[in-house]
Each structure stands twice: as C-alpha cells, then as structure tokens.
Design brief:
The chain has two domains: 213 residues, Fructose-1,6-Bisphosphatase, Chain A, domain 1 (2-Layer Sandwich), CATH 3.30.540; 130 residues, D-Maltodextrin-Binding Protein, domain 2 (3-Layer(aba) Sandwich), CATH 3.40.190. The protein is an alpha+beta fold. The chain contains 13 helices and 13 strands. It is 37% helix and 19% strand. The longest helix is centred in the first third of the chain and has 22 residues. The protein is globular. Bound molecules: D-MYO-inositol-1,4-bisphosphate and calcium ion. The site of calcium ion has 4 residues, from strand 4. D-MYO-inositol-1,4-bisphosphate (2IP) binds next to strand 4. Its cofactor is Mg(2+).
C-alpha cells in the first residue's frame, strides 16, 4: 500500500515543519509577531501562519505527486499557493528542484529573511524516516488513478498560533491548545466521492520535559471495497456516552443533546481534533449544526472513522430524513462535488453541518434527540 505510506510520510514531514515554526526562534518570531502601522498592510508579515500552511500543503502535494504522477492535478487543499510579498510582488509558493532554489524563493516571499527561508527550505527537502511494521504490512491495492486528495495542512490554526501546551484535558479531551492543531490528509474515490484513506497527524502530541521539543503521533485508516484497516482499535460504545461540540455550538443544540449525554457534553477547538476524539473513543459523537467545516477538514478523519466501522453524515440531510420517517442509515458525506450556488471556499463547505460517529447504532439516538429541537 505505497499510497498510504506516502501519505503518512508526507504528514510526518508536514508535522516536522509545523513543529519547526514553533521551535526555531527565527520562525517563531514571525509566527507570533503582531504587526502594526504600515507593516500591517504587508500580507506576508501579517500572515506568516498562512505561509506555513501553504508551504506544508505544497510539500505534501509535491512529495505525493512526485511518487504518484497519476495524482498530479487531483491533490487539493485549503490554501491557494499565490502569495504577495512586502514589495507587492505576487509569488507562487512551491517546492523547487533543489533546497537552494526553494530557499531563494522563500527568501523572496519572506522579504529577504534568509535565516527563516533557509530553515524552512531544509525542512522541506529533508528525508523523514518512517519505520512502521503495521503500516508496511497493509496490503490493499488502491489505484492512484481513481483517487484524489484533500489536505488540511494545519487544522485549528488559531490554537497553533496561540500555542498553549499547558491546557488540562476534561474527560480526556483538550478544550484548546496545541493538542488540537493537526495535519489532516484524506484520499477519496474520484468517481463515488467516498473517503478511502485517512491520515491524522498530531504534531504536538507530547512535549519532552527536558528538551521541550514536541513529539508527534499519527493515525491512519483504510476503507476500500469491503476492506477496513486502522492503526487504532475500534473503541467500545460506552453505556454513558459523551459528545464533543464546538465552543460556539448553538444553545438549542446543546439543550437538545443534554438528556442523552448528561454532564458529558465536552467542548473543544478544531474540527479535525473533535473527529479524532470520536476516533479515539473519548466521545461517541461530534455534532455540528453549522456549515463551518470543509472537505479538507473532514475527508481524512472520515476515512479513519469508516475504517473503524463508523462514519460521518450531513446533519441537516439526516434530520430531514428522520423527520420524514426514514430511520435507516442516512447517506454519508462525499468529497468529489462542489456545492452548487456557492463561491470560493464555500463551494467545499459541509453546508448541512455533520455528525461523526464510530458506532452506527448510536446515530439514531442523536437524531432522535435533535429532531424535536426547535430551529434545527
Ligand atoms: C477550522 C478549525 C476551527 C473549526 C473550523 C475549521 O479550520 O478547525 O477550529 O471551528 O470548523 O474549519 P471550531 O473550533 O469551532 O470547531 P482552520 O483552523 O484550518 O481554519
Ligand atoms: Ca481546517
């Protein structure tokens, strides 16, 4: 399964770059810098975080596309790679043939901050070692010709910038902080739109108490033609289930879910992180009533959920079906079609909100609880 291995490898390199931007002083200063006055108008300085995002996305695109030419032109992400520097020049951020050329391009984007450009270029061109016998043993023939890819280079960018590493978990779930900043990569079937391969990388999984360096962790899943494989075991459906929600979830939704979950409504930042909480069995469901997530947020985690026998559905559509008396499994989210009548990033939003779950038998309880909620 060379493609899954390539996606994991790319996520590891992406995680290294995300860690580097927080650990190397020359980069960290740019990441947290608050610009004022005239500098505020220079897009790159306001937005080094966007450069980090774009660069990570381009690295994944480059490395995966180089190994699988059939995927070139079918790898999509959250960010556009066009950038304007402080001189008003528009530059296209990409991985060049050599480290030296990448460093030169990044120096132009970064208004000649050569130290920062050199650090990033070295990380972009490094070989990331990957030893994973379980991954090496995966034998499923997924043909790259029929796949396309969604990348979220850093989900939960706000928490990535804030950078708190000292947030205490509630019921095992981190409400905020670096733990919720994730790299998400998903491969889906170009024709059916079904998510097939998923990788979730946690660059800020653990901090070494002596060196203060961050160590990451990754998870993967495959769901293809009846074969389901995952780096994680399927968590049990607990008798006292919990749900994880966005801190900004509607009060009506919270109230409607309260009887089902008792005091176990948890709140966390990061769409991908909330999906990971479900995958890890820290919550039985992630319920979102707004169209505030996108295909790049959900594709990778959705593939992992399917690998565990679970899934992700459009909440609005599932509720409409439930109210119309259709109590069977609702259709799952797909990834190949843009929403009609929308423009820009909104074309790829999960407009109806979503429910993520590992146990399909838990979904009716969620829909039953929400079907009676006013205004949903
Ligand atoms: C965001 C990020 C936010 C999330 C939003 C995503 O992605 O995960 O945290 O909102 O839905 O699109 P919330 O935290 O309320 O769930 P990004 O950080 O990549 O913009
Ligand atoms: Ca995101």
């Amino acid at each position: 399964m060379a493609l899954l291995r390539a996606l994991v490898c790319a996520s590891e390199k992406a995680a290294c770059i995300a860690q580097l931007c927080r650990q190397e002083d020359a980069l960290f200063q740019l990441l947290v810098e608050e610009k004022t006055g005239a500098d505020k108008n220079k897009r790159f300085v306001q937005d080094f975080k966007t450069l980090a995002d774009v660069l990570i996305q381009e690295v994944i695109k480059h490395d995966v596309g180089a190994e699988f030419p059939a995927l070139q032109g079918h790898i999509f992400g959250e960010e556009s790679n066009k950038f304007e520097n402080g001189l008003g020049e528009t530059l296209v951020v990409q991985v060049c043939g050599t480290e030296c050329d990448t460093a030169a391009l990044l120096a132009r984007v970064l208004d000649h901050n050569q130290a920062a450009a050199d650090l990033l270029a070295a990380a972009v061109h490094q070989e990331v070692p990957l030893e994973d016998p379980a991954l090496a043993a995966v034998a499923v023939a997924v043909s790259p010709e029929s796949m396309a890819i969604w990348i979220d280079p850093i989900d939960s960018t706000n928490q990535y910038i804030r950078g708190r590493g000292d947030v205490a978990p509630v019921g095992g779930i981190y409400p905020s902080g670096l733990r919720s900043a994730l790299v998400l990569i998903g491969a889906y079937d170009r024709h059916s739109g079904e998510p097939v391969l998923g990788v979730i990388n946690e660059p800020f999984y653990r901090q070494d108490p002596l060196t203060h360096r961050w160590q990451g962790k990754y998870h993967w899943g495959v769901s293809y033609q009846g074969t389901r494989l995952c780096s994680l075991p399927c968590p049990p459906l607990r008798p006292d289930p919990a749900a994880v929600l966005s801190g900004s979830e509607k009060p009506e939704v919270q109230q409607a879910l309260a009887p089902l979950y008792g005091g176990r409504l948890r709140f966390a930042s990061g769409a991908g992180y909330k999906m990971l909480c479900v995958i890890l069995g820290l919550a039985e469901a992630y319920v979102l009533s707004e169209g505030s997530t996108f295909k790049w947020d959900s594709c990778g985690p959705h593939a992992v959920l399917r690998a565990l026998g679970g899934g992700m559905v459009d909440l609005g559509a599932a509720l409409a079906g439930w109210r119309a008396g259709r109590h069977g499994p609702p259709p799952q989210l797909t990834y190949h079609r843009a929403a009609g009548g929308a423009a820009g990033a909104e074309r790829w939003a999960n407009h109806g909100g979503l429910v993520a779950f590992t146990h399909p038998e838990h979904l009716p309880a969620v829909l039953y609880a929400l079907a009676a909620a006013p205004g949903l």
